[in-house]
Amino acid sequence: AKPQVVVIGGGYGGATAARYIRMWSDNSIAVTLIEPNASFISCPLSNLVLGGSRQIGDLTMSINALADKHGVRIVRDTVTNINADKRTLALAGGETLSYDRLIVSPGVDFMWDQLPGMLKPGAQDTILHAWKAGAQTVALRAQLEAMPDGGVYAMTIPPAPYRCPPGPYERASQIAFYFSRHKPKSKVLILDANDDVVSKGPLFKKVWRERYAGIIDYRPSFRTADVDAAARTAISELGDKVQADVLNVIPPQRAGSIAVRSGLANVNAHWCGVDFLTFESTQAKNIHVLGDAIAVAPLMPKSAHMANQHAKVCAAAVVDLLSGRAPDAHPMLTNTCYSFVSDHDVIHVASVHAYDAAKKTLLVVSGSGGVSSGPSALEGEYAMNWAHNIWADTLG
Ligand code: FAD
Questions:
Q1: Whole-prediction pTM value?
Q2: Complex ipTM above 0.90?
């Protein structure tokens, strides 16, 4: 019988791993992918839906090519339990699957218990995160469209690490862009738990000064401790209250629930430790973890680009391990995060990460990468091409 690999999650990490294991094993490994959602909806570019220059349909794709072109068995279901000793997993629909190697790429989940007011009935229906692209992205856009000119949109940013370090600042820029064109008396208030802009700080701040002065107000070190949803008010740990017409709470994050529940989140009880040569869990044998759910190496962002790179290192290692070969000892990964600051102008940050055998982690190669000198439409073209390339690479 063919070796069996099961993949949890058909997002950026999981779908890429499923596809590449099939390709690199010449279809000699059976791959089953478990994903509850009917379609893949991209978080990258979803801030443009809030800015008004894209629709959610532009970012919604089928995952069926993984089955049709690559022979991945896709099961539309949710994994409820992993039994690492027996190498089995249970699905909400009742099926039990066994595996030789399991790949877990469930993304992030939100720590709502850190914002008690958000646990009140109905709170999460009116105060949106839009940090998983889809219905919430569309609903937040509708709130912005319904807001009268002269209103205040406030966003809370959780402490790092969270999914997509530049994402909140790109979102603030997108909404400021929309206000500058359609509601010029309105404000964007950024309530950041971190002490400074987490990614591309000088570039974002320059854009805000030069393009969105009077619209964007940036408040660092505002650590949101609670939310009064009915009053659309964020409350800081110091008791400061900020009321908004549209309040967008990006909650504190940890590895996806299935990873936490299965005991894989062994770093600060929030993130999953991995061996960076194979992305095998440091907690459980024969289980690999990818993407946002891992405890990242130094200066490694939680990004789609990184999840794609984790997936390829892991896919190659899984094919080697199931074929009795030693995995590559020198993995090297790259990352580029593009951020749209208008409907077409973009800035980027890039880095290269190489395995350090002595430190047993991935370290940024000195002198690699860097940031844009400033926003440009040419980088806007690069960003769109990046998105189309990664979608094709992920979904086949
Ligand atoms: P995901 O892509 O979220 O996939 C996880 C999948 O697992 C989901 O489909 C989920 O349904 C499934 N799942 C979860 N639990 C289970 C279970 N129990 N059983 C079965 N399936 C399960 N990154 C970039 O590189 N560039 C960008 O420009 C960029 N922009 C962003 C903008 C925003 C607004 C946001 C929010 C994020 C952005 N990101 C960007 C980050 C990027 O979206 C994530 O880093 C990436 O999605 C991580 O991939 P993943 O596989 O870890 O998780």
A1: 0.98
A2: yes
